[in-house]
Amino acid sequence: MNAAPPPATAPARAGGNELEATLARLRRAWQAARPTLAQRRGDLGRLRAALSARIGAMDAAIRADFGHRSEHENLVSEAMVVFAEIDQAVSNLRRWSRPRRAAVGWQLWPARAQVVPMPVGVVGIISPWNYPVNLALVPLVSAVAAGNHVYLKPSEHTPHTTSFLRELLAGVFPADRVAVAKGGAEVGAAFAGLKFDHLLFTGSTAVGRKVMAAAAPNLTPVTLELGGKAPAIVCADADIDKAAARIATGKWFNAGQTCIGVDYVLVDARRRDALVAALRRELASRYPDLASSRDYTRIINDGQLARLRGYLDEARARGVELIEPFAGAATGERLLPPVLLIDPPGDLAVMREEIFGPLLPVVSFRALGDAVDAVNARDRPLALYPFTDDPETLETILSRTLAGGVTVNDTLLHFAAKGLPFGGIGPSGMGVIHGKAGFDTFSKLLPVLRQSRWSATDLLKPPYAGRVDRLVRWLAR
Question: Could you say which of 73, 85, 225, 282 is catalytic?
Answer without folding.
Answer: 225
